[in-house]
């Protein structure tokens, strides 16, 4: 998926997690952190930009083969931080860990849908890649062109629409509260 889809996915996943946490400590900050964490796995593109010194993502760019696009890369640190937060009685750190880990895992699940090559689901046991409706196009402009024309792109569009709808709903609820406006 593209950045807007990952931000929207991070936002929706974070809202879902926050719905199950009682009490939520600093909801706005956690919602922002979770939304941004939805982009975290794609920060590996900064490494590619620095290495190639180019803004061009050619057919050799397949960051889904990198460790930064594997589940253990986020789940293990996320669980360790959560465990530490429980042991050290730091509930806000635990909440931050939950929303961040959930958003990054959501990103990986989104990348499995309509990606060019899929993800390494069982890494480190195998480097075999797979996904849902993989387009069999390596990264760069070729993938973007194929993805935008394929019906699977509607999954991302619907995620973005759902997130925008939730934002509008929250805004309207806030505006309708007594003493606001």
What is the structure about, briefly put?
This protein has helices at 3-19, 27-37, 44-52, 72-87, 91-111, 141-149, 153-175. It contains seven helices and no strands.
Kindly describe this structure.
With 181 residues, the chain is an all-alpha fold. Helices cover 59% and strands 0% of the residues. The protein contains 7 helices and no strands.
Q: How would the blueprint of this fold be written?
A:
Elements: H1 3-19, H2 27-37, H3 44-52, H4 72-87, H5 91-111, H6 141-149, H7 153-175
Helix pairs in contact: 1-2, 1-5, 1-7, 2-5, 4-5
Helix content: 55-70%
Return the structural class: mainly alpha
Stretches with pLDDT under 50, minimum 5 residues: none
* End-to-end CA span: 37 Å
Radius of gyration: 18 Å
- Strand percentage: under 5%
Number of domains: 1
Quantity of strands, as a count: 0
Structure annotation, total helices? 7
Order of helices and strands: HHHHHHH
Q: Which quaternary structure do these chains form?
A: single chain
How would a textbook summarize the main sheet? none
Shape: globular
Average pLDDT, all residues: 90
């Amino acid at each position: 998926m593209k950045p807007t889809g990952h931000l929207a996915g991070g936002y929706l996943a974070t809202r879902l997690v926050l719905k199950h946490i009682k009490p939520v400590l600093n909801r706005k900050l956690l919602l922002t952190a979770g939304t941004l964490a939805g982009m975290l796995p794609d920060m590996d593109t900064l490494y590619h930009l620095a290495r190639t010194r180019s803004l061009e993502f050619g057919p050799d760019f397949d960051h889904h083969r990198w460790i930064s696009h594997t589940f253990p890369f986020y789940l293990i640190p996320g669980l360790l931080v959560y465990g530490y937060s429980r042991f050290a009685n730091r509930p806000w750190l635990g909440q931050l860990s939950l929303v961040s880990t959930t958003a990054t895992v959501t990103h990986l699940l989104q990348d499995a849908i309509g990606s060019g090559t899929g993800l390494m689901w069982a890494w480190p046991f195998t480097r075999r890649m797979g996904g849902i409706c993989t387009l069999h196009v390596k990264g760069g402009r070729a993938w973007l062109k194929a993805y935008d024309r394929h019906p699977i792109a509607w999954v991302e569009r619907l995620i973005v629409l759902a997130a925008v709808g939730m934002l509008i709903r929250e805004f309207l609820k806030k505006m309708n509260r007594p003493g606001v406006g």
